[in-house]
Design goal:
Number of strands: 3
Number of helices: 5
Distance between the termini: 36 Å
Strand order of the largest sheet: 1-3-2
Strand content: 5-15%
Largest sheet: 3 strands, antiparallel
Order of helices and strands: HHEHHEEH
């Protein structure tokens, strides 16, 4: 397995562990948005929305551009690539383990029932 920055993965997984933050990311995947525009889409205060946004910024998932008084947010999905790579390792791990289990069960079934076609 490759080397991964543990603290970066910790921040990323912590950031996406919350439903509101995942919803913010989904909204930003559609297009950039102002902070106030994002906040109006959620049944929480502007202050609470801003706290969620800061967590996403720390994880590198959201970038902020200041245009005068407007703070425009953009999705930066690049940090998710490392997490996807980390998860892919475990997907392959479990695929191989489950394939080995299936082979074992099929062989066992044949030895237990020699006349069976399975």
């Amino acid at each position: 397995m490759g080397e991964y920055n543990t603290s970066r993965l910790d921040e990323l997984f912590a950031a996406v562990s919350d439903g509101t933050r995942r919803a913010i990311l989904a909204r930003l995947a559609e297009s950039d948005a102002r902070v106030t525009e994002l906040a109006s889409a959620f049944p929480i205060s502007l202050n609470s929305t801003s706290k969620h946004i800061r967590i996403l910024e720390r994880a590198g998932l959201v970038t902020r551009t200041v245009q005068g008084r407007e703070h425009v947010l953009s999705l930066n999905a690049a940090p998710m690539a490392e997490a996807a790579e980390w998860m892919e390792f475990y997907r392959r791990f479990w695929d191989s383990r489950l394939a080995a289990l299936e082979d074992f069960v099929l062989k066992k079934r044949k030895t237990d029932n020699p006349g069976s076609k399975q």
